[in-house]
Write a structure and sequence with these properties.
single chain, 168 residues, mainly beta, OB fold (Dihydrolipoamide Acetyltransferase, E2P), 3 domains, 5-stranded antiparallel beta sheet, 3-stranded antiparallel beta sheet, elongated
C-alpha cells in the first residue's frame, strides 16, 4: 500500500470494519444495519455465497466495501461472531454451525452431524447405503436381530437386513 496519506485515506474510505446491529433477512437480499468507523451508521446489502444462507447474530463483525469510495455502493462481506463456532478447526476441515450448538463438520474422511437437541430427516424416501449400521456408538457389536429369531415378515436372521444393524 502506498505511504501517500491521500491514497491511504481513500482506501480507508472504501474498506472498513462493521459490527452488525440488526439484519433484515426477509427479502432475496439481506440488508444489514450496523456501526462502522467512529460510530458511523451503516445500512448495506450483504453479499452471500450461492448454496449457503445464514442469519448472523448481532455483534457479528464483517467487512464493508464501498465500491469507488461511495457509500451508496457499499456491500458487506464475511460476517462472523467470535463467540460461536468451532475453535480448533484443522487445516482442510470445514464446519457449518449456528448459534445454538448445532454443527455439521467435514473432518478428514468423516462427516459428523451434532445437534443440541434433535435431528429430523424429512423426505419421501431415505436410503442408507452402508454394509453395517451401528446404533449407540462405534463400539456397537451386537446384531439387532439375534441368531435364531424370525421377524414379523417371516425372515430368519440369516436373510434379514437387520443382521447388519449392530447395537450396544
Amino acid at each position: 500500500m502506498s505511504n501517500d496519506p491521500e491514497t491511504r485515506a481513500q482506501v480507508a474510505a472504501m474498506i472498513r470494519r462493521v459490527r452488525l446491529a440488526d439484519i433484515d433477512a426477509s427479502g432475496p437480499q439481506h440488508i444489514i444495519r450496523g456501526t462502522g468507523l467512529k460510530g458511523e451508521e451503516v445500512l448495506a446489502p450483504r453479499v452471500k455465497d450461492f448454496g449457503f444462507s445464514s442469519s448472523p447474530p448481532p455483534g457479528s463483525v464483517g467487512l464493508l466495501a464501498a465500491l469507488g469510495g461511495r457509500s451508496d455502493r457499499a456491500m458487506l462481506f464475511g460476517l462472523d461472531h467470535a463467540d460461536y463456532g468451532p475453535r480448533d478447526l484443522a487445516v482442510g476441515h470445514t464446519a457449518i454451525y449456528d448459534a445454538f450448538g448445532n454443527i455439521v463438520s467435514l473432518v478428514q474422511s468423516e462427516i459428523r452431524i451434532v445437534s443440541a437437541t434433535k435431528i429430523t430427516l424429512r423426505a419421501p424416501a431415505v436410503t442408507i447405503d452402508s454394509p453395517v449400521i451401528k446404533l449407540g456408538s462405534d463400539g456397537a457389536a451386537m446384531p439387532a436381530a439375534m441368531q435364531g429369531t424370525t421377524d414379523t415378515g417371516g425372515f430368519a436372521d440369516i436373510t434379514n437386513l437387520s443382521t447388519r444393524v449392530l447395537i450396544e
